[in-house]
Amino acid sequence: MAEHSSTPRIVVIGGGIAGLSCAAAISAQASVTVLEAEPQPGYHASGRSAAVYIEPYINATVHALTCASLEHHLAHGASSIGDWMIADEEHAHLLDDYLETWRPLCPDLVEVDPVWVRSTVPILRQENVARVVSDPHTRALDVHRLLEGYRRRLLANGGVLRGNARVDRIERGAGHWEVSFGSETLTADIVVNAAGAWGDEIGQLAGAAPLGLTPYRRTAVLIDPGQPVAGWPMVHRIEGGLYFKPDAGMLMVSLADATPSPPCDAQPDELDLAVLIDRFESATTVSVRQPGRAWAGLRTFLPDEAPAVGFDARLPGFFWLVGQGGFGVQTAPAVAAIAAALLLGREHPLAGTLDPRRYAG
Ligand SMILES: Cc1cc2nc3c(=O)[nH]c(=O)nc-3n(C[C@H](O)[C@H](O)[C@H](O)COP(=O)(O)OP(=O)(O)OC[C@H]3O[C@@H](n4cnc5c(N)ncnc54)[C@H](O)[C@@H]3O)c2cc1C
Fold first, then answer.
1. CA of 89 relative to ligand 1 center, distance in Å
2. What pLDDT, in 10s, does the model give residues 45-99?
3. Which residue, of 4, 32, 148, 264, has the greatest Cβ tally within 10 A?
4. Alpha-carbon distance 119 to 159, whole Å?
């Protein structure tokens, strides 16, 4: 894309799903460069997710962003799997709270017969399935396809994606920003901070006050249940601490853990993995002899568990795109559309609650 005075020069820091989706969304109207510290985009949280779309999730803000993203997901490989929230006798009452919270927003949540549930997913132990609420709208997402779609759109519109480009200096000049990585420096009208777990560090590099981002580690492992999993839904324990879903003939099983962590290349902790396998064996009839690939990733939250999307309260041209927690994949299309509107000087009906200035002291 040719650069001229009316074309904003925008540098996006972070090539995860947040940075790439935003960059793609503005790439037809702006001169965009994405700087990613790792060799490949999606190396951190975006490449380590459970890759599901769940409407009754976190809070009403996230729900609205999720539903507003559905059309994009349906056009990019999303497939229906459904989700069962299971409860044993002890925790059955928690399903009432769950239904009370979510049914006003998700009227299709429905209680289903535990006998049918156990016959459909026969590894579930009878004593763990006293009550079940089904969400028919949960979908499996294709994260690789999403990332690749955003990357291609960015490049097709003349945008640039630089790997191995770890930003180490951000300076405000006369009406513009200078963004350096190693020996190279780019000049930009706007800097977008899409650095995930490193969001507050990037903010501080630019001279902004931190918003209060906290990364939390989450652990997952692939387990072969010894029988076909095709047609199984995602299964959550209502009291937390365990979920699983079909993943290429295996089950992706997660501890649903949330251990505070500094920003880093998160790795699974041996004790977490042992607890995970023990908990999975207690919930099911599977005896895990040889667990498959295990991984961990960081889910980075702001205190109100909604993302921050918008310009900094004090630094002109510094734009926050952070705090996507455990919902950054399923909400990426809507969040990118909001970010694009604001970056290009327009309004967006969902922007208000995401304004980072809510954290300005
Ligand atoms: C186990 C697990 C399960 C999850 N399941 C789901 C799910 O089912 N559905 C869902 O929607 N979400 C899920 N999530 C959450 C989702 O993965 C995140 O919300 C999302 O990936 C965040 O995207 P991001 O682009 O903000 O962060 P990231 O993907 O982490 O991208 C940030 C990028 O910034 C780069 N960066 C940092 N510092 C610099 C620097 N100085 N210079 C240049 N680049 C820099 C990093 O290298 C990184 O690539 C899950 C997360 C985990 C860990």
1. 36
2. 999 999 999 999 999 999 999 999 999 999 999 999 999 999 999 999 999 999 9
3. 32
4. 51
